[in-house]
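Re: that chain you flagged

S.,

Sorry for the slow reply, it's been a week of failed gels. I finally had a moment to sit down with the sequence you sent. For the record, here it is as I used it:
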Amino acid sequence: RGKVSEGETVERKEMYKRRKKGSFFFFKQKTAYEMLRSLVGSEMCIRDRYNYGDLLCNVPESKTCKSKKGMLSFTPSRFGFPRPFLWDEGFHLLLGCRWNEDICLTSIANWLDTIDDNGWIPREQPRGEELRNYIPGLVENNNEGNPPSLFFPLLYLYKKTESSGKVNIFIEQYYQSFKKWYYWFYRTQNANKRSGGYADRFKWWGPIEEINLGSGMDDYPRFNGTSVSEVNIDAQVWMIFWSDAMRLFSGDLGRQADKIFFNQRFQNTLKNMAELLDKSDLLYKDLLVDEETRKQHTFSQHFGYINLFPLAFGLLPKGSAELNATLDFIYNNDTIWSEYGLRSLHIHDEFYGVGSNYWRGPVWVGINYLVLKGLKLHYSDVPEAVKIYTELRENLMNNICLLYTSP
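Prediction finished late last night. Pasting the structure tokens below so you have them in one place:
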């Protein structure tokens, strides 16, 4: 709107400082952490993006694909992967919602507005030719879901007293979309699609077993020889979390029949998680089945991020042998612990660092955050958990700081 005066510039800088101080954790000292916090906060504010257009899908007749829709996303405006990702968005909005609630809710609404009649939300949204130029011919598959991480920022706002009125209105407005999305996942990612008799047990379904884009952890190994996934522990945990959130929302909205349904799903899915506990080492794992006979069941012998999901969501009882086993597994330089954060795969796994090496070793901030969140919220009175939380947090922050400041 023209030249900004010096007085307006100073005023806006002060407004930014006040909002930043009120929105994010503040380091008292002028440390590298504090400077990094300022840098990340600034980039978040200027790098959110809006794109508009259609999608290429394996079901061209889908309204959500052929219709031109808008998408406001906190996915950074970047050259590599310059498009919104569904489960990434939930993590990005944990920052976005602290900064500006209205923009955050608008982004969540844009995602929900792309839901199709069956409840599917495309996990990637490169709407328009410009975004698709990075990977020409990128096609969204309506068999692939994504974790419901959008409920992270939504629950954060829901439990924030000063935001409750606004968020309650939003949840009521989009409640049917939440239900439709949940039901889609419940139907399409259910383990009984193939073998029968697996109600309230879940796995990630996609075109091939070797690459599992829907889970978000694309090339993480989900197979042993001829055995493939029957039930996935991370899918099971995500559904426990999702069912819990839906029973909360439905209850507060007075939808008693829905509350009963979601509570039953929560109880059953939590109970069935016990079947994924390998009693030989007390770690929760994927359950595999022989691809040919469909009879011989074994536990996956690939260790890494997926074994941490029960801890990350606070599902391991305090004082339990299962909690101790998971903490021991984490805090071990010979497994996934490193001075940079938790590795995605056990360093002695046959697939460690193999192939595209995407989720086969590298440290991912999102999963490290989930583990830190779980340790702090659910196990802050467990000495070993506190020790791991403190060291892991420092390792991860140092790593990110070094990456930002390296030439």
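What I noticed first: Residues 164-188 form the longest helix (25 residues).

Talk soon,
D.
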